[in-house]
Amino acid sequence: MPDRCEYLDYAASAPLRPEALEAERAYDASPYVGANPNSLHTLGREAARALDGARRDVAHALGGGFRPADVTFTSGGTESNNLAVLGLAEGVRARSARRRRVLLSAIEHDSVLDLVGPLRSRGFEVELVGVGRDGAVDPAALEALLDDSCALVSVMAANNETGVIQPVAELARRSHAHGALFHTDAVQAFCHVPLELSEVDAASVAAHKIGGPVGVGALAVRGRAPLRPQVFGGGQELGRRAGTQDVRGALAFAAAARACEASLAETRALVARRANGLYQRLCAPGTGILPTTCARVDEGRLPGIVSVMVPAVDSETLILALDQAGFGVSAASACSSGSLDASHVLLAMGIPRDQALGSLRVSFDERVGEDVLNRFADTLLRIVAERSAARR
After folding, report:
1. Is 150 a catalytic residue?
2. E-strand spans in 131-266?
3. Is residue 270 packed enough to be buried (19+ CB in 10 Å), middle (13-18) or exposed (0-12)?
4. Gap between the Cα atoms of 268 and 365, Å rounded
5. Span 149-165, pLDDT tens digits
6. pLDDT band for position 295 (cuts 50, 70, 90)
7. pTM (2 decimals)?
8. Residue/partner pairs of 383-392 with CB below 8 Å, 24 or more apart
9. Which of 5, 150, 294, 335 is catalytic?
10. Helix (H) or strand (E) holding 129
């Protein structure tokens, strides 16, 4: 085994940023450390003020006209997505009984797609919106499924496997034209690209995707949206989500968001250049490696996700070989890494199963240098060449 493993799985969880770590340390040294922000005493009120400051920072980083009061802190992206999809669907139906349909894109994260069963058990009809070979939802395809029985549409801002950015503003406008609410899972896109959220009713985000701590997320919901809580017992977060808030985690989340937002344009351009350079090396003619989509990183995809396929070698073999060589990557979403089947995202794009079984996702931010990416490219190209030679 190599002395050091280079971590290239930032889309699963990014290393903690110094700003987030410093925010945690500052909280630990504060007079209100451990105080419940819902208590009326002095230290509780100080904790509440700190929490409100974090709420303002997250709302500002989201943009789209979201107010601090719209932001509900959660335990992460999965809870945010669950709360949004289940809570909004039930809230809309409570207002209008005929609205019993929920539309989800076929490329959503498991924290959304795994809600199909629970939604149906609660009396909703659920339909999946397909994508094209480019990995994007066509607004016309959504339009064909919309009618006045739709309660909610949920389409992610950018895919967590391919990095393809979705036209959420147009999708939201079309949903609203039929009276449906629109939610976007912005977990992977938040603070990596500018978000167009002015049209959406709710957006989910998570701290650990941007260098904040694991176990903290947020759901931003417009005040007019009828969100039904899914956790009960205390009335915190304006009644949207019961449970004592994690002030320490919220402050670290806010610090990471501020750091990313401050350098977003510069960082996006830098990471996109490195990603495009990695694509060019890996997918050059004769390497046996294919891109999952042809969109350029600096145009239609997130800057720090490189999504490729090696049709002749399965993902597990590649990941283990790369791990032995000192590089940590994944095949698809880390939440489904235990699955031996091909990625549902790539299959939904129409990619043949034998190609999709050899997918790799390499992800990073500005903290990963070109030297690491070049050594990774050398290693993967060597592994693929050796596997190809062994088959001949």
Report:
1. no
2. 150-154, 181-185, 202-206, 217-221
3. middle
4. 9
5. 999 999 999 999 999 99
6. low
7. 0.95
8. 383/318, 383/321, 383/322, 383/325, 384/287, 384/288, 384/289, 384/310, 384/312, 384/313, 385/288, 387/312, 387/313, 387/317, 388/288, 388/312, 391/312
9. 335
10. strand 125-129
